[in-house]
Amino acid sequence: MAGRRFRPAGPAEGQGLLRRKDLLLFFLLPFLGAVILILLMSALNRAYVRGSMDALVTEQLGAAAGILKAGVGRSLEEGTPPSRALDIYSAEGEIYYMALLDADRKVLAWTSLFEGYLPLSAQDVPAGGAWVIDSPAGRIFNHFGPFSTRDGRTYYLYLGYSLKAFEEMSSRSRRNALLVFAIIAAAGLVVFRGLSILQSGYVNKAREAEESQAEKERFQEISGFTSGVAHEIKNPLNSLSLLFGLLEKRVAPDLREDVALGKNEVRRISLIVDRFSDVLKPLLVRPETFPVGEAVESVLASLASEFPDVRDRIRFEGDGRTAIRADRELISMVLANLLRNALEAGTTGEIVVRADRDRKRVRLSVRDTGPGIPPERLGRIFEPFFSTKAGGMGIGLYLALRIVEAHGGKIEVRSREGEGTEFIIRVPGG
Questions:
Q1: Sequence-ordered list of residues with C-beta below 8 angstroms from that of 1, at least 6 positions apart, any chain
Q2: DSSP category for residue 204
Q3: What is the mean pLDDT of residues 189-193?
Q4: What is the CATH number assigned to the segment(s) 288-428?
């Protein structure tokens, strides 16, 4: 029994890894696939919108060019010089440049917002007479086409329309698409983070449940073994106690002190067996509502026989009328154990017991200024049969843990070497 080591089995960790893989497989990968699909669809949609927009622009601006040709043609028929015929339309904000050419494609007149820039000379006119160029002012739609006046003369009109408004619409559409994508991505990350937190909590709870189950199995095995040992030891101890009682009356006076020592040792062994038996018994909690101050006062009175200066060394803070809902005897046992440990820890300053409200619970704390608990031992002090004291049996704090948990509460410890130790208990309030 002593050589066995109990450790929570590995399935919780293995299951945790599997669950992480499942989380990646069933959420993250589909999410990434959806993101890629959205990006692809967005790119295809932008390409489609761009193509549709270019076709629409070509159609609409071609119609506008036809109207301009008719207007310029009428001006020319009325005898207006070519330069004056273009002046009427040069103020249009969306027309960046325009030119009037004769039948031989010689420039008769032109205007431009580009300070002398007319790209016609450097641009071959494509079939259809419509094309788009990039310029410092953005994309420019170009239209080049012939028209005739009523007297049979042929002219060519060259126009450059700014696509700035359309570009702004396209840019706004792109920004909206990116915004929607960012919102979807952020929502997905938030959901993934939430699922990850839930999954981590689930794994931690599963691990804690397995550790608790392993601890229960360990306790049950120890309990069965200890109960058997206690039963086998009690009968011989009773016989020894009776034998020492008879010897004490019949032995020579010079041996009575040795017999009394033996009798005390038998009694001590019997007390240890009884304490082990008490730890192994199921706890029966009989809750009642009572003020914390009464329990502290009762414990101080019981400790006065062991520590005469207990009231000088222990100070109570908080409202003693704070009500607590618990088993008075069991809670007093916990407080007595914690205070006894603090008194025996070599504390030079005061030991402070404090009680206050913590929402619907009562928070009890016992703080001393003793040597503290080494970090390597701090995580084991609630284990059964583990003690930091030379003559300790490792039962008191384990029993305190069982009592507090039986009340649906929690107990924790904070300690630093050379600064002291504080035990904090949270149990239901009254």
A1: 221, 222, 225
A2: H
A3: 75
A4: 3.30.565.10
